[in-house]
Amino acid sequence: AGAATFESVDAGARARVWDRVVRVFHWSLVASVAGALVTGFLAPRWWLDVHIALGTGIAALVIVRIVWGFT
Q: Which of 4, 32, 31 is nearest to 17 (CA)?
């Protein structure tokens, strides 16, 4: 389920296509890491709760991706 599959895009060409869960994981991780970096380095101290929530979300995303990779 977590692996890439091949789908035909041309008569003879093949391209890797990742499933939706992997794509959503990837872009959610990108957004979470960017948010954590901004709140960690640039935001005032009172943004710490958001920073911690983003870090917790990153951990949850990684756990979901590991589980998805074994199914």
A: 4
Strand, coil or helix: what is 6?
strand
pTM above 0.70, yes or no: yes
Cα gap 55→35, rounded to integer Å: 9
DSSP states of 21-60: HHHHHHHHHHHHHHHHHHHHHTS-GGGHHHHHHHHHHHHH
**Spatial separation of the C-alpha atoms in residues 64 and 58, rounded to whole Å:** 10
Which of 1-5, 6-10, 12-16, 48-52 has the largest mean confidence?
Answer: 48-52
